[in-house]
Design brief:
Radius of gyration of chain A: 24 Å
Strand content of chain B: 5-15%
Helix content of chain B: 25-40%
Low-confidence stretches of chain A: 1-14
CATH topology of one domain in chain A: Methane Monooxygenase Hydroxylase, Chain G, domain 1
Mean pLDDT of chain A: 94
CATH architecture of one domain in chain A: Up-down Bundle
Strand order of the largest sheet of chain A: 5-2-1-9-17
Mean pLDDT of chain B: 95
CATH class of the largest domain in chain B: Mainly Alpha
Oligomer: heterotrimer
Radius of gyration of chain B: 21 Å
Number of strands of chain B: 7
Distance between the termini of chain B: 60 Å
Distance between the termini of chain A: 26 Å
Structural class of chain A: alpha+beta
């Protein structure tokens, strides 16, 4: 590992081995003119409106029913549009937004501690390592306040103070208390709020809900997104759906790593299929690795479990100083032989430094220095201690139990270890993907009529997302942004322009059927899961917390080989007339096998380190991320050119008019 | 968790297999070998499925998604207990260390008229969605909500609402109930909203509509066995059902059927 | 309030609302609880009256006579009619719910099913209810209508000799057995019923519900003790 880093640094000045064409596509972000504070109001006023009587003539297809999808579908239905909503789960209430624990930020300044819309905007841009679009982020901060109002009105049971006012906490290293929460189930409560609104619209007949239905392709008519093709997961039926606009609210692609904190079903298929139909994919290499997850326990693991990073408020992270101590139980290692590496490396923030920095430090300790603890999995010990003994001694067990009781119980349930007695073991895990389909200020991709909301788009978090911001973005997009911006598009469109008998639908339908038949016809020996696992290992090793030119180039070759094997040897049993879990998984893995390559390409091209993207060649002398604002202050948007061709790069320059670019420092 | 390879187990599984809703089903017996005590129950099934695929047999279909106990998608009747033997735990959070080498495990789908089997262990819980559609919401459109702090809510009421709101909609209550009643599920949603001022205006109408819908969907009537309360992985208390009955009677007396 | 401001309560006519309520599962359940509560009250009253047997023939026969002469003889029939209506509703809605619930379980049952919190009393409500019904019919023929055993002649004051009737009956072993079995099932029925009915009526309280449960169980056991006390005392101890 160390040797390859030195080599790569030496190779830094040489020309990059990756060869990709530049696209001549001009990406217009359509950011409104005028001062930052007035852009959104001005834009809403300037946008065209759809006559209330005409709204029901327009059909909007919403794919996904998480925070973004459910809020968008219900809000558009409330406005009078005719809405179809699709989800692959058995109910729209299951989408993975439900698993967010910590909370949702809002610039309410209820605590009178100096918070403001501008401060939330500033924190988000800085936290994103200056790789997000200013205007979008400001709008997000602005809408954050309305979200809380809306959710309370829906009956979301946020935590309250004894006086009946909403409670807040500080989260993810923020210096103000702006995070609203509902115990450790904020995501669940917000999703159920949006789901209840959606249910109300389904009852009213204004949303038609399609559960256990997976979008497999996008239909373009005259260059506009006018429909989708889906597969019914219970009976295999391939169906066409025509609409006047398509909204992809399909979440992130963290499962490309196989092991992540994502739900098992989370996949890239919808956005990747859109990419293959011409949508630009923005910053695919930006992934967030969350530092406080329960480590991998064995080779058959399917899922990593996140524990709230609030644990870092009272827990101290350490590994043994000596490699030979790694097999000892923590009690046997004396104080002077413990390395509290975050406190050592980042004295000012210590255990509370941002996610990307904490994660990388743990990786260095385990991977590079071999000082990881816990059971050996595939020859490595990947875990660091999160130790509460000092806090318990100082504050008493009762206080710690009051704050983290449920998390300690969860940890004990999974690991069968008692964290009150022995330190927890944690390790970083893939948690969120900042990249996604490129969208303009209207959340519309470069394909007219194709809108992308929530984690599925690339827009608001730059290269790293702050804690408690994902929920905020999903709901801002769905409740408050799309209702305004979609009208601007639809007003210029003739309603119900393309029926499902249109040739374009037939063609895409044929492609989908053919692909299904092809998968079923391979009749190979190796299970889809085993391919997924193999891909995940490549991605985690080479495109995970630290990346290098050599590693990424190698990864691309490995992925290509794996993909070739997949199409020859994957075992997809059963038929397409019944529920077929291997067929579902195979289709998703097939897309991951292409998408992984795109991620590596993006990571390879970005010759800098920023946020969640850390290139070993680009670091300061003391191992910190080294940004290159002169060359890379842009959003990378990749365009498909054909299956055997390298995608082309289009760039959207990021202009910072309201914030001065600065190197992040948490020392 | 000591070092070295942990002891693995061999288990005998009796699993319900059914090709689709129309087909007849039957139990099949499988051996699960090399099961690690640290695996979750679903990871154990993954292992069995990998083995089945290797032998050219179709894998067992079961519902699952988040695998962290919150999405409510996983189900399974494990040796006669919904979500298995650990209380307050979903199947995805149930670990194999609670079983022993050589155990026989019977795995069945949720059984209820309102939850027809889709395939193997997968059932259709769409009836739950339709119960929420009948009134499990506050009728408020996006936009125009007053400031979130304009109505103070006593902490105690907010906590009662949250206790009920923890429901994940998995259906264990129906599966466990000798009468396949959905009262705990319906009661949980009603209770969440009745303890908040925002839910008050529609409190009794909601009761009438949701409970009538439950009858229509073919759920049974609650006879106060409280099996649901014991089976609930989120430990929703029986209180929510008493509240629901009270609201229903109030609604009927006041003719809040509008 | 002027005409224009009048609040319109619901769109449905009142009769329809009542029918809907009675047809609903919750309505049926509430009717079970209300009729159950009334029957529970009856059982207590019945026992308290009967316990007068321990005071000798005079108070018991006078009590019997008093019941017969209530409202110039009509009162007893009013009470009997009401009781009959209550019992029939309890039975009707009980059976209706049982049928609904059987259907709700669906076509295929579990191969293995554990009971987690329920008890035998709760699981056998229908069975215990049917046996109790049979017992009541027997009891009516036995002491009211006649036909099981020969009724004794009137007492010296010209009243039904309730005391002697009971005394003679409970010297017969098989009749004692029938009564003990009937009361055991009543105890079982009440054990679940007394806990269940408050929940069905929507009464739940962190302190009072457990207290009511204890009180209900204690009362159930007391009723059982009192009711079997009479035949057993007569059979074993009275000469």
């Amino acid at each position: 590992m160390t040797a390859s880093i030195t080599e790569s640094i030496a190779a830094k000045s040489k020309k990059s081995p990756v060869d990709y064409p530049l696209s001549d596509l001009k990406l217009d972000a359509k950011v409104p003119s005028g001062p930052l504070e007035q852009k959104w109001e001005k834009h809403k006023f300037d946008s065209k409106l759809v006559n209330p009587a005409n709204k029901r003539k327009y059909t909007v297809l919403v794919v996904g029913s998480g925070l973004a999808g459910a809020s968008a579908a219900s809000t558009l239905a409330e406005l009078g549009y005719n809405v179809h909503c699709f989800c692959f789960q058995d109910s729209p209430r299951r989408a993975h937004s439900i698993a967010a624990q910590g909370g949702i930020n809002a610039a309410k300044n209820y605590q009178n501690d100096g918070d403001s819309v501008f401060r939330l905007f500033y924190d988000t841009i800085k936290g994103g390592d200056f790789r997000a679009r200013e205007a979008n982020v400001y709008r997000l901060a602005l809408n954050s306040r309305n979200i809380i109002d809306q959710c309370v009105a829906q009956g979301v049971p946020f935590a309250r103070e004894y006086g009946g006012q909403l409670a807040n906490r500080s989260f993810g290293g923020a210096q103000v208390s702006r995070t609203f929460y509902a115990r450790g189930q904020t995501g669940q409560q917000l999703l159920l709020g949006a789901y209840s609104s959606l249910s109300r619209m389904i009852e009213a007949g204004r949303v038609k809900m399609h559960t256990r239905t997976e979008m497999l392709d996008l239909v373009l008519v005259d260059g506009h997104a006018k429909g989708i093709v889906t597969r019914n997961l219970t009976n295999g039926k391939v169906e066409r759906w025509a609409g006047d606009a398509v909204l992809l609210c399909t979440g992130g692609y963290g499962n490309v790593f196989y092991l992540s904190t994502n739900a098992q079903g989370c996949n890239v298929t919808a956005t990747y299929r859109a990419f293959k139909r011409g949508a630009a994919f923005g910053n695919p290499c930006y992934t967030q690795i969350h530092p406080t997850c329960i480590p991998v326990h064995g080779d058959d693991q399917s899922k990593l479990t996140l524990m709230s990073e609030s644990l870092r408020n009272d827990g101290r992270i350490w590994v043994p100083k000596k490699n030979e101590d790694c097999t000892k139980s923590p009690e046997q290692i004396p104080e002077q032989d413990r390395d509290y590496f975050l406190e050592r490396r980042y004295p000012a923030f210590g255990n509370l430094c941002p996610r990307d920095i904490a994660s990388r430090a743990a990786k260095v300790a385990c991977d590079d220095e071999g000082r990881g603890v816990g059971p050996e999995v595939n020859g490595r010990r990947l875990g660091v201690f999160l130790d509460f003994s000092k806090s318990i001694a100082e504050k008493g067990r009762a206080e710690i139990e009051g704050k983290y009781g449920n998390l300690f119980d969860m940890y004990a349930k999974i690991t069968a270890e008692d964290p009150y007695k022995t330190p927890m073991r944690i390790y970083p895990a893939v948690h969120y993907t900042m990249g996604g389909l490129w969208v303009d200020y209207n959340l519309m991709s470069n394909i007219p009529g194709l809108f992308v909301l929530g984690e599925a788009n690339f827009s608001d978090h730059g290269a790293n997302r702050l804690g408690a911001s994902a929920l905020m973005q999903g709901l801002s997009d769905g409740y408050f942004v799309i209702p305004s911006t979609i009208a601007g598009y639809l007003a210029g469109q003739k309603p119900a322009a393309a029926p499902t008998e249109h040739a374009a639908f037939k063609e895409v339908d044929g492609d989908v059927q053919q692909r299904i038949e092809r998968l079923l016809a391979i009749k190979g020996k190796r299970s889809p899961r085993s391919f997924h696992k193999a891909l995940g290992k490549i991605m985690w090793d080479e495109c995970g917390m630290a990346r290098s030119e050599q590693g990424l180039a190698g990864a691309i070759e490995q992925i290509k080989a794996l993909r070739a094997e997949f199409w020859e040897n994957v075992a997809v049993l059963g038929d397409n007339d019944n529920m077929n879990v291997s067929l579902e998984m195979a289709g998703r893995v097939a897309d991951f096998l292409e998408f992984g390559e795109l991620m590596c390409l993006d990571a390879l091209h970005r010759n800098e380190s920023c946020g969640g993207h850390f290139r070993a060649e680009f670091q300061t002398e003391d191992g910190e991320a080294l940004r290159n604002d002169d060359e890379f202050a842009y959003a990378a948007a990749w365009l498909h050119r054909g299956d055997d061709k390298t995608p082309a790069l289009a760039k959207e320059p990021l202009v910072f008019e309201n914030i001065k670019l600065a190197q992040r420092s948490y020392k | 968790m000591a070092d070295g390879s942990p002891k693995t187990m061999t288990l005998t599984l009796h699993v319900w297999r059914q090709k689709n809703a129309r087909a007849a089903g039957a139990f099949q017996t499988y051996k699960a070998t090399g099961v690690s005590p640290d695996q979750s129950f679903l990871e154990m099934l993954d292992l069995v499925n990998e083995d089945l695929i290797g032998r050219g047999q179709e894998p067992i279909a079961f519902d699952h998604d988040c695998r962290e106990g919150i999405c409510g998608m996983c189900s399974l009747m494990i040796n006669g207990e919904p979500h298995g033997p650990e209380r307050g735990t979903t199947t995805c959070q149930l670990h194999m260390r609670h079983f022993h080498d050589g155990d026989e495990i019977v795995i069945e789908p949720w059984r209820a008229r309102a939850f027809p089997v889709v395939r193997d262990l997968v059932v259709d819980r769409g009836a739950f969605d339709r119960l929420i559609q009948a009134g499990g919401y506050v009728s408020v459109n996006a936009g125009g909500a007053p400031d979130a702090n304009s109505v103070p809510i006593p902490k105690k009421e907010a906590d009662l609402a949250m206790d009920a709101a923890a429901c994940i909609g998995c259906g264990a209550c129906v599966a466990a109930c000798p009468n396949a009643s959905a009262m705990l599920f319906v009661g949980a949603k009603m209770s969440q909203l009745r303890h908040l001022p925002q839910g008050k205006p529609e409190q009794t109408k909601r009761a009438l509509n949701m409970l009538n819908r439950a009858d229509k969907e073919g759920f049974g009537a609650c006879r106060n066995h409280f099996e649901c309360e014991a089976a609930c992985p989120k430990e929703i208390p029986r209180r929510v059902m008493a509240e629901a009955f009270r609201d229903y009677v109030t609604a009927a007396v006041n003719r809040d059927d509008g | 309030m002027s005409e224009g401001e009048r609040v319109v309560r619901g769109a449905k006519p009142p009769l329809e609302v009542v029918i809907d309520f009675v047809r609903s599962s919750v309505g049926a359940k509430v009717i079970m609880a209300v009729t159950g509560l009334a029957l529970w009250g009856f059982v207590i009253g019945h026992l308290v009256g009967n316990l007068q047997i321990f005071q000798g023939p005079e108070p018991l026969n006078a009590y019997g006579e008093m019941l017969h002469s209530l409202g110039h003889g009509a009162g007893l029939w009013v009470v009997r009619a009401a009781l009959l209506a209550i019992v029939l509703s309890h039975i009707f809605f009980g059976l209706r719910l049982a049928a609904m619930n059987r259907a709700a379980r669906g076509p295929v049952g579990y191969r293995t099913k554990q009971s987690l919190r329920t008890n035998t009393a709760a699981m056998t409500m229908a069975v215990s209810g049917i046996v109790i019904l049979a017992f009541i019919v027997f009891h009516l023929f036995h002491f009211t209508i006649g036909g099981i055993t020969e009724l004794p002649p009137l007492d010296e004051k010209g009243r039904t000799d309730v005391f002697l009737m009971v005394f003679q009956a409970f010297k017969t072993p098989w009749i004692v057995v029938v009564y003990v079995v009937g009361q055991t099932l009543l105890l079982s029925h009440l054990t679940h019923g007394t806990v269940s009915l408050w929940q069905s009526l929507g009464l739940h309280h962190p302190v009072w519900t457990p207290a009511l449960r204890v009180a209900g169980r204690a009362l159930g056991v007391s009723i059982f003790a009192g009711n079997i006390g009479i035949p057993l005392a007569i059979f074993f101890f009275w000469k």
